[in-house]
Input
Amino acid sequence: QVQLVESGGGLVQPGGSLRLSCAASGTIVSINTMGWYRQGIGMQRELVATISSTGSTNFADSVKGRFTISRDNAKNTVYLQMNSLKPEDTAVYYCRLANTKYWGQGTQVTVSS
Output
């Protein structure tokens, strides 16, 4: 059974950084496309970033140049490094095994002074 467990969220001031982790079990992140999504209050869930099995990455325009996505194959974990955070980045962030029903439980990121 696939399980995705996010961690690393929290409260950070504008301009700060956070690194989110998504630890996977029951699947192998290196041979799948993995994605990070987010959902703010009253907003639809949106795609933030993806990383493919070849290591190709894609980002939403709103986070380009500020966020990076990576993986550690040995730890079977995907990361989202978030820099220069803005209040509008406040959301619950979810990890997903792309094109499947498998989502993590989410981790809250709050950007506020």
In short: The mean pLDDT is 96. The chain is about 0% helix and 50% strand.
